[in-house]
Design goal:
alpha+beta, 7 strands, 138 residues, Alpha-D-Glucose-1,6-Bisphosphate, Chain A, domain 4
């Protein structure tokens, strides 16, 4: 099993950051490469359409509003991995007006090396968190 994680510090309170990104259907609000999302199965499954019209279907595995964290797995996806589980979490930074956001995932590479799979998700997480941070500049 392989793993990677990316963290970013954002100059906004954890509550403000979670308000933007904490909903399971909120990716289009902050992630430019996912312009469309819809929920099904009582909000437990999200269907994502990427900017280049790739379909990704994910299942909400755990949600903790108080801890500002949720985890999800893949139902349908184009990536060379199996047994994928990722978690997005917002924590308080060094002071109450900053946040630390972490996006972490574990997975089993299929048909590619562990290094290739880790590099792929590390770049997805890094680009995604950079886009999230851009919402709080200025």
């Amino acid at each position: 099993m392989a793993a990677t994680s990316v963290t970013v510090e954002i100059a906004a309170s954890p509550e403000e950051v979670w308000q933007l990104m904490g909903g399971f259907d909120s990716l289009p609000d902050w992630l430019p490469f996912v312009p469309r999302s819809s929920l099904s199965e009582g909000g437990r499954v999200r269907t994502l359409h990427t900017a280049d019209d790739v379909l990704i279907v994910e299942r909400l595995e755990a949600f903790d509003n108080r801890a500002r964290r949720y985890s999800y797995s893949f139902i349908q996806q184009p990536f060379p991995v199996a047994d994928y589980l990722a978690t997005l979490q917002v924590r308080e930074g060094n002071d109450p007006h900053t946040s630390i956001v972490e996006w972490a995932g574990i997975f089993t590479p299929t048909g590619v090396s562990e290094e290739e799979a880790v590099d792929l998700f590390h770049s997805i997480y890094a680009e995604g968190l950079a886009a999230l941070k851009a919402n709080f500049r200025g």
